[in-house]
Amino acid sequence: MKKLLFTLLLLITCTITVHAQAEDLALPNYSPKELKKITKKANKGDVQSMKLLCQYYWREEHRDSMLCLKYLQLAADAGDMEAQNSMGSAYASGSYGLTIDYDKALYYTRKAANQNYDFAIFNLGLFYFNGDGVEQDFEKASAYFKQAAMKGLAPAQFYYGACLSIDSTATDQANFWIQKSADQGYIPAFAVVAEHYLNQEDFAQAMKYAQMAADEGDAVGMSMLATIYYLGLGTEKDLEQARYWAQQAADQENNAGYTMLGQIYYDEENYLFAKAYLEKGALLGNNRAREVLAEMYHEGKGVEKDEEKARAFLTDAIADGDEAAKLLLSLYNLSDNHNDLDAVAHDEQSIDSNDPIALLILSARYKEGMGVEQDLKKAFQLCKRSADMGYAPAQYDLASYYRLGQGTAKDDREAFNYLLKSAKQDCDIAYGSLSNCYYFGKGTAVNYPEARYWAEKGVEKDDTIACYIMGLYYYQGAATSRNYEKALSYFQKGANLGSSDGLYGCFICHHFGDDAIRNNVLAFKELKQAVELYQKSGIESTNITLAYYNMGICYQNGVGTAKDSKKAFYWFSQAAKQQNNDNDPAVKKAIGSAQYNVSYYYYNGIGTAVNKAKAKYWIKESAANDCNEAKEALKRMK
Fold first, then answer.
1. Nearest 5 degrees, angle CA 471-CA 476-CA 481?
2. Alpha-carbon span 111 to 107, nearest angstrom
3. Nearest of 400, 336, 393 to residue 539 by alpha carbon
């Protein structure tokens, strides 16, 4: 939500040309005699009478633009600095029926400024700020604004702060002058001060100034107030208040107001109204509106799905300098499998900004070889750059590189460290994996309280790994007494979320649990479903070996299903071929036992043809995995 202060100022001031001296003093209704007397004095060169007549003929009930201009010019030519400034303003804005003439506007304004008149000095700054009649020059503009600001002129203080805000080292000074302007009641300053406090996360002050701006009819303040209520910044989220103030801003054709209304309707899935308001915001150059419209067309929400339209909206936003749109386009390129040269070039250029999200997106390209040659080392390096910038999703992904040894050496300790960093930033996808590290002692010491803490946080976010760890926590009685019912409830939650480990957990509860929940038929059904899901998803899990082995046991002994030697042999063979990459003792034991059974089946011709050579091979493999029965059998063979 943070924006460059100067960007907001330009949005506020882009329609302002020259500030004219207000001349709305309450004047008496002159009698014909009084008017004749004042006119006579004016015609004899009395400047004050000239100014009184100018004001008189500008009033609605006596409006005569020609006479008003006549006496204003007479006063200006007589050297009155206020009249000179007003003449400059008239030529700059085309008031009194004059043709805009910046040369004459500058002539009169400079004459007033030379008399040290603060409004004229300020107006000279505006000429250079806007490039009206002169070459745009922010340095000269700033010098004039400073001169008028030092004299206490609120608009000048505001614009001087705007110029200072261009320089990142002068932010404090910029804020000081804009605050002074706001303190004098200069309405455009209210919204800018509100934004400053938003960036400082001082939401009470932000709301105060946004409300002040809104109460004065300032559309920027209204849209900002809508944002505060929409996000619940320092106050309760209040969509009705957000909608009200966004509508007030939209009624003034404010692009942020249109966009906020569109966002609210989009959230409510009222896509018809969302589209209408967002299109108005986009037409007025609001990049957030373009991004939401891009999402609507990309996802087909309320409109026919159209990837090209989505990309067109993002392209417009990118051309307007919007970094978020660059990242969104990269994400769409990745998700839509756009691997052409343009897509890859866009992603390569995006990392020039050193944005951690762009780095992570490009890392994914090199990891999967999407539009580029697969390069795990480069993918790792890009991911690490992103992670070391503190980006939590990248820290989570980097842990996977270290855990699997992809693009770098396998390092469980580093994997744990990055998972911990990610989880501590409330990256909820890291909770389950971190709890897994603490539970099994991967990269850190076994710590059941920490495992439970992170697993419980993960369960709240429907993390299936966390559900499995909580199930194991109660199933194994880690740091607590066994509770098969609680264990089953967590395993079942994971299974309902589509987790194969969750299904396997349900199997062990129904197969090995206490009498209250033991159900071998249901257990076998869950085990079979788990195995099918493991094979379909291709995910890595230490439970795959255990599941294969238990399938063999169930078919061998007829537990929950009919005995079937051929199927038992098949599943023992599948378990025997597995690798124990995590050095898990339970997995090692299952592999050794499966290898022993495969050897036994080959030796006796059970479920397969007799093959003494293969029987001998598998008995040696089993012994190498510390299967005692295999070791004894090898001794007998010798």
1. 100
2. 6
3. 400
